[in-house]
Design goal:
Layout: H1 2-18, H2 20-35, E1 40-44, H3 49-57, E2 65-67, E3 79-86, H4 90-101, E4 106-111, H5 119-123, E5 126-129, E6 137-138, E7 144-145, H6 149-170
Parallel strand pairs: 1-2, 1-3, 3-4, 4-5
Antiparallel strand pairs: 6-7
Helix pairs in contact: 2-6
Amino acid sequence: MKMLTTQLSGLLQRIAASEEENIEETARLLAQAAAREGTIYFATFDEMESIAINAKYAVEAFPSMQVWTTDTVLTSIDRVWIITRSCENKEALALAQKLSDDFIPFSVTAAEPEDDANHLASLAYTYISLKFSKGLLPAEDGSRIVLPYALSAMFVYEAVKMKLDEMLVDE
Protein backbone atom coordinates (compact mmCIF):
# COMPACT_ATOMS: atom_id res chain seq x y z
CA MET A 1 0.00 0.00 0.00
CA LYS A 2 2.84 2.38 0.81
CA MET A 3 4.49 1.76 -2.58
CA LEU A 4 1.19 2.45 -4.37
CA THR A 5 0.68 5.67 -2.41
CA THR A 6 4.22 6.80 -3.17
CA GLN A 7 3.89 6.09 -6.90
CA LEU A 8 0.48 7.78 -7.17
CA SER A 9 1.75 10.80 -5.28
CA GLY A 10 4.74 11.00 -7.60
CA LEU A 11 2.50 10.75 -10.68
CA LEU A 12 0.23 13.57 -9.52
CA GLN A 13 3.26 15.71 -8.65
CA ARG A 14 4.70 15.13 -12.16
CA ILE A 15 1.43 16.23 -13.72
CA ALA A 16 1.22 19.31 -11.48
CA ALA A 17 4.83 20.32 -12.13
CA SER A 18 4.99 19.81 -15.89
CA GLU A 19 1.41 20.38 -17.06
CA GLU A 20 0.45 23.54 -15.17
CA GLU A 21 0.67 25.76 -18.25
CA ASN A 22 -1.28 23.28 -20.39
CA ILE A 23 -3.95 23.03 -17.68
CA GLU A 24 -4.32 26.81 -17.65
CA GLU A 25 -4.45 26.98 -21.47
CA THR A 26 -7.11 24.26 -21.51
CA ALA A 27 -9.18 26.13 -18.93
CA ARG A 28 -8.86 29.30 -21.01
CA LEU A 29 -9.94 27.47 -24.18
CA LEU A 30 -12.97 25.93 -22.47
CA ALA A 31 -13.88 29.22 -20.77
CA GLN A 32 -14.36 30.75 -24.22
CA ALA A 33 -17.46 28.58 -24.68
CA ALA A 34 -18.83 29.16 -21.18
CA ALA A 35 -18.36 32.92 -21.43
CA ARG A 36 -20.04 33.15 -24.87
CA GLU A 37 -23.06 30.92 -24.18
CA GLY A 38 -21.47 28.02 -26.02
CA THR A 39 -21.29 24.46 -24.79
CA ILE A 40 -18.27 22.57 -23.50
CA TYR A 41 -18.52 19.02 -24.77
CA PHE A 42 -16.69 16.22 -23.00
CA ALA A 43 -15.73 13.50 -25.49
CA THR A 44 -14.61 10.69 -23.22
CA PHE A 45 -13.63 7.16 -24.17
CA ASP A 46 -13.49 3.88 -22.26
CA GLU A 47 -12.92 4.32 -18.51
CA MET A 48 -12.58 8.07 -19.02
CA GLU A 49 -16.37 8.23 -19.25
CA SER A 50 -16.15 8.44 -15.46
CA ILE A 51 -14.77 11.98 -15.87
CA ALA A 52 -17.83 13.10 -17.86
CA ILE A 53 -20.17 11.47 -15.34
CA ASN A 54 -18.44 13.30 -12.51
CA ALA A 55 -18.45 16.60 -14.42
CA LYS A 56 -22.17 16.34 -15.06
CA TYR A 57 -23.43 15.02 -11.72
CA ALA A 58 -20.93 16.31 -9.15
CA VAL A 59 -22.05 18.69 -6.41
CA GLU A 60 -20.04 21.34 -8.26
CA ALA A 61 -20.94 20.48 -11.86
CA PHE A 62 -18.72 21.66 -14.70
CA PRO A 63 -20.23 24.84 -16.21
CA SER A 64 -21.85 24.71 -19.66
CA MET A 65 -20.94 21.03 -19.98
CA GLN A 66 -22.62 18.35 -22.07
CA VAL A 67 -21.51 14.87 -23.06
CA TRP A 68 -20.44 14.64 -26.71
CA THR A 69 -22.03 11.92 -28.83
CA THR A 70 -21.66 11.09 -32.50
CA ASP A 71 -24.98 12.92 -33.05
CA THR A 72 -23.73 16.18 -31.48
CA VAL A 73 -23.93 19.20 -33.77
CA LEU A 74 -21.15 21.65 -32.92
CA THR A 75 -21.04 25.39 -33.55
CA SER A 76 -18.13 27.82 -33.67
CA ILE A 77 -18.77 28.94 -30.07
CA ASP A 78 -18.59 25.39 -28.69
CA ARG A 79 -15.45 23.74 -27.36
CA VAL A 80 -14.59 20.06 -26.99
CA TRP A 81 -12.42 18.34 -24.41
CA ILE A 82 -11.30 14.90 -25.59
CA ILE A 83 -10.26 12.69 -22.69
CA THR A 84 -8.89 9.27 -23.55
CA ARG A 85 -6.59 6.67 -22.07
CA SER A 86 -4.37 6.54 -25.12
CA CYS A 87 -3.34 9.18 -27.62
CA GLU A 88 -3.64 6.37 -30.17
CA ASN A 89 -7.38 5.81 -29.60
CA LYS A 90 -8.91 5.57 -33.09
CA GLU A 91 -12.24 7.17 -32.13
CA ALA A 92 -10.48 10.08 -30.42
CA LEU A 93 -8.17 10.54 -33.42
CA ALA A 94 -11.11 10.53 -35.85
CA LEU A 95 -12.96 13.10 -33.74
CA ALA A 96 -9.84 15.26 -33.43
CA GLN A 97 -9.32 15.20 -37.18
CA LYS A 98 -12.96 16.19 -37.80
CA LEU A 99 -12.77 19.01 -35.25
CA SER A 100 -9.53 20.22 -36.81
CA ASP A 101 -11.04 20.10 -40.30
CA ASP A 102 -14.11 22.01 -39.05
CA PHE A 103 -12.02 24.60 -37.15
CA ILE A 104 -13.66 23.75 -33.81
CA PRO A 105 -11.11 24.42 -31.02
CA PHE A 106 -10.52 21.45 -28.72
CA SER A 107 -8.28 20.16 -26.00
CA VAL A 108 -7.00 16.65 -25.37
CA THR A 109 -5.99 14.84 -22.21
CA ALA A 110 -4.31 11.46 -22.76
CA ALA A 111 -1.36 9.28 -21.85
CA GLU A 112 1.74 9.48 -24.00
CA PRO A 113 2.78 6.80 -26.49
CA GLU A 114 5.87 4.70 -25.92
CA ASP A 115 7.52 6.46 -28.88
CA ASP A 116 7.40 10.18 -29.65
CA ALA A 117 4.71 10.01 -32.37
CA ASN A 118 1.63 11.72 -30.94
CA HIS A 119 -0.71 12.73 -33.77
CA LEU A 120 -3.49 13.56 -31.31
CA ALA A 121 -1.31 16.16 -29.58
CA SER A 122 -0.35 17.70 -32.93
CA LEU A 123 -4.03 18.23 -33.83
CA ALA A 124 -5.13 19.66 -30.46
CA TYR A 125 -5.19 23.34 -29.55
CA THR A 126 -4.05 22.31 -26.06
CA TYR A 127 -2.79 18.96 -24.81
CA ILE A 128 -2.40 17.69 -21.25
CA SER A 129 -0.30 14.59 -20.76
CA LEU A 130 -1.18 12.08 -18.05
CA LYS A 131 2.59 11.57 -17.65
CA PHE A 132 2.78 7.80 -17.80
CA SER A 133 2.64 5.09 -20.44
CA LYS A 134 3.24 1.92 -18.43
CA GLY A 135 2.21 0.54 -15.07
CA LEU A 136 3.37 2.29 -11.93
CA LEU A 137 4.40 -0.82 -9.98
CA PRO A 138 6.52 -3.84 -10.88
CA ALA A 139 4.81 -7.25 -10.84
CA GLU A 140 6.43 -10.50 -9.77
CA ASP A 141 6.93 -11.52 -13.43
CA GLY A 142 8.74 -8.29 -14.33
CA SER A 143 5.78 -6.64 -16.02
CA ARG A 144 4.29 -3.34 -14.81
CA ILE A 145 0.88 -3.10 -13.15
CA VAL A 146 -1.46 -0.36 -11.88
CA LEU A 147 -2.54 1.91 -14.71
CA PRO A 148 -4.47 4.77 -13.04
CA TYR A 149 -5.68 6.52 -16.19
CA ALA A 150 -9.04 7.62 -14.76
CA LEU A 151 -7.52 8.70 -11.45
CA SER A 152 -4.87 10.86 -13.11
CA ALA A 153 -7.46 12.28 -15.54
CA MET A 154 -9.72 13.14 -12.59
CA PHE A 155 -6.81 15.05 -11.05
CA VAL A 156 -6.36 16.97 -14.33
CA TYR A 157 -10.12 17.56 -14.53
CA GLU A 158 -10.19 19.07 -11.03
CA ALA A 159 -7.21 21.31 -11.84
CA VAL A 160 -8.81 22.52 -15.08
CA LYS A 161 -12.16 23.09 -13.36
CA MET A 162 -10.51 25.09 -10.59
CA LYS A 163 -8.79 27.35 -13.16
CA LEU A 164 -11.94 27.65 -15.28
CA ASP A 165 -14.03 28.64 -12.25
CA GLU A 166 -11.45 31.33 -11.38
CA MET A 167 -11.59 32.69 -14.94
CA LEU A 168 -15.38 32.80 -15.04
CA VAL A 169 -15.57 34.62 -11.69
CA ASP A 170 -13.12 37.25 -12.96
CA GLU A 171 -15.36 38.10 -15.94
